[in-house]
Amino acid sequence: MTTLATGSDTLTRDALAVLQPGFDGTTAPDWVRRRLGEGLASVALFGRNVVTEEQVTALTAELRAERDDLLVAIDEESGDVTRLDVRTGSSFPGNHALGAVDDPELTRGVARELGRRLAACGVNFDWAPSADVNANPDNPVIGVRSFGADTALVARHTAAWVEGLQSTGVAACTKHFPGHGDTNVDSHHAVPRIDVDADTLYARELPPFRAAIAAGTRAVMSAHILVPALDPDRPGTLSRRILTELLRGELGYQGLIVTDGMEMRAISGTYGLEHGVVLAIAAGADAICVGGGLCDEATVLKLRDALVSAVRSGELPEERLADAAARVRALARWTAEAKRGAETAVPDPEIGLIAARRALTVTRAGSAAPVTEPVHVAQFNPAPNIAVGDETPWGVAAELRRLRPGSTAGSFTGPDAGRQALAAADGRRIVAVVRDEHRHAWMGAALDTLLAARPDSVVVEMGVPQAPPRGALHIATHGAARVCGVAAAEAVVRG
């Protein structure tokens, strides 16, 4: 049973202020309302909290009835990682698609429209964009969440995204510092390690964060990654060298530093959740992201009490906690002022589909022909990325059923996926939908089987298009947002 904190009221309020917890349900729980009155200054929304935009608007109004200067955060990257459109797929393409177009003004416009929607729902803090340079094509957690593998491209689009979002009064949170792109381990499961020299890190990973800082990003999110060239002992989230000396000192950043989700195994499985939170604040983090998995009152009270106890024992300087809490409150003030000063954004609901269409890369073989009859859509499903989740639909089946009535669809996985898809097609032309074919040997084998039997098959790659194009028609969408699926289906029909 959690013991209630017995520190001073100011200390307890500061400990609550640095937490950014999630909660369960689509209305404001009583325990969240109570803690808002006691000093909690932020809450986070996840897919489980979202049904419709009207419902989210009502939810944020409920929360602000308890505290009007509240930070309401959301993990809304657009593209594959979406919470606002968790049940339908995103209305905006993600970073990789925007990087493929390489029009910073388009990126700025997409982020502005997203910010307009978030602001209308009462959300004023977005844990995005990802500024990671996708240096490792086998990265299991970043991939299409990155603008690309070129540092300069990532930097200019990160800046444009930050500017577009923040023009609406919604604070951006550039992530995952000092760069999560060159990893082959998902920090949801374990501690990733980047073994490159400091010169490479400074030249490749840091420029996008410098660009975000120059663009005025109000927050930066730390990564749970071990970078021995910077700190051989502790991952970024817990490293004073990385957060205080590098980010604040060398890069001159003065805004809010937020941790990545602290219940991720890279931290909780190695240091323990409560101790990890204390270490993060001591290292220079100002706000603690928690709630993607643990979303109950007991977790909030345990973390509050751990921070209070750490101050009372001398492990955590009281001034450091007070500084962190002050930065959280300062960001809340900025969002209120920015919202009042923001220009009224004219809705641009088509910009997401326009961007998705522009992002397509279409490769035609000699046997390419328009799809004029109903088809069978064979979707090859990899294991879901934890950051993306398994709730959000993806693919082209729904749109092809609309464009070519009578079309059928099935999902396949594993070593026999190709043969199963051929049998299910029952003689129809096949549209094969893959996601990161280059990372999944079974997926490549399934395409081998399909194309050997049906060389007229269309292949739609909705991940990173690293594998060579093949099929009568190959369409790379650079992401699996709903609008990417719509754009791809249109291209399938055109042939």
Explain how this protein is built.
With 495 residues, this protein is of the alpha/beta class. It has helices at residues 9-17, 30-38, 53-66, 95-101, 104-120, 151-166, 198-205, 207-214, 240-250, 265-268, 273-283, 297-313, 318-341, 351-359, 397-403, 417-425, 441-453, 482-494; strands at 19-21, 42-45, 71-74, 125-126, 171-177, 219-222, 256-258, 288-290, 361-364, 376-380, 408-412, 430-434, 458-461, 473-476. The strands form three sheets. It has a six-stranded parallel sheet, sandwiched between helices. A six-stranded mixed sheet has the order 9-14-13-12-10-11, with helices on both faces. Strand 6, helix 9 (240-250) and strand 7 form a beta-alpha-beta unit. The chain is globular and about 70 Å long.
Mean model confidence by pLDDT:
93
Provide the gyration radius in Å: 23 Å
Biggest sheet record = 6 strands, parallel
**Derived structural class:** alpha/beta
Number of helices: 18
What's the total count of β strands? Answer: 14
Low-confidence stretches: 1-7
Helix and strand layout, with pairings?
Blueprint lengths: L8 H9 L1 E3 L8 H9 L3 E4 L7 H14 L4 E4 L20 H7 L2 H17 L4 E2 L24 H16 L4 E7 L20 H8 L1 H8 L4 E4 L17 H11 L5 E3 L6 H4 L4 H11 L4 E3 L6 H17 L4 H24 L9 H9 L1 E4 L11 E5 L16 H7 L4 E5 L4 H9 L4 E5 L6 H13 L4 E4 L11 E4 L5 H13 L1
Parallel strand pairs: 1-8, 2-3, 3-4, 4-5, 5-6, 6-7, 10-11, 10-12, 12-13, 13-14
Antiparallel strand pairs: 9-14
